[in-house]
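Re: the 124-residue chain
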Amino acid sequence: VQLQASGGGLVQAGGSLTLSCVVSTRTFDNYIMKWFRQAPGKERDFVASISWSGDGTYYANAVKGRFTISRDNAKNTVYLQMNSLKPEDTAVYYCAADEMGKVTDSDDYGVDYWGKGTLVTVSS
């Protein structure tokens, strides 16, 4: 299983950006999909997760109300729509696949596969 994230870039504070993650697997809808991020000099943090069907989502408090996670199982793709971006959102964003966990799991212990990350830089 391979995950390829894209969509990162430079954006001004208050702006928007959408990340995509394409997963190469025949069983994409078996996985809970998650986004994590790692800011320079900091640990990797949970951002959001979405259930197999897409009807369940869970967000970190820091992004709740600003970010939206979604998925298209026909395209093996998970998205992260990021609005009202802040400089503190600057980080490398990673998508992750978790086959056995819960959508409310905000740790990375159960993650089975990771993408390589895409850099988001928010300027003030």
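The chain has a mean pLDDT of 96.
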